[in-house]
Amino acid sequence: MTKDKQLLLQEIEQYRTLLNEKAKETPLISEEMIYFSHKLDELLNKYQSLTSKTPLKH
What we know:
By secondary structure, the chain is mainly α. It has helices at 3-23, 31-52.
């Protein structure tokens, strides 16, 4: 696994943890929760994009 993917997975896990912790005390429809949710979505999409690329054949 590349360094970029590892770092991205760490960031994804940080946002997941943050979202879960904040959800215990913050309404899900709050601006803060929506921001964190969108950020996590962006990171997951970026990871999916990185992992779905197939190597070029020579």
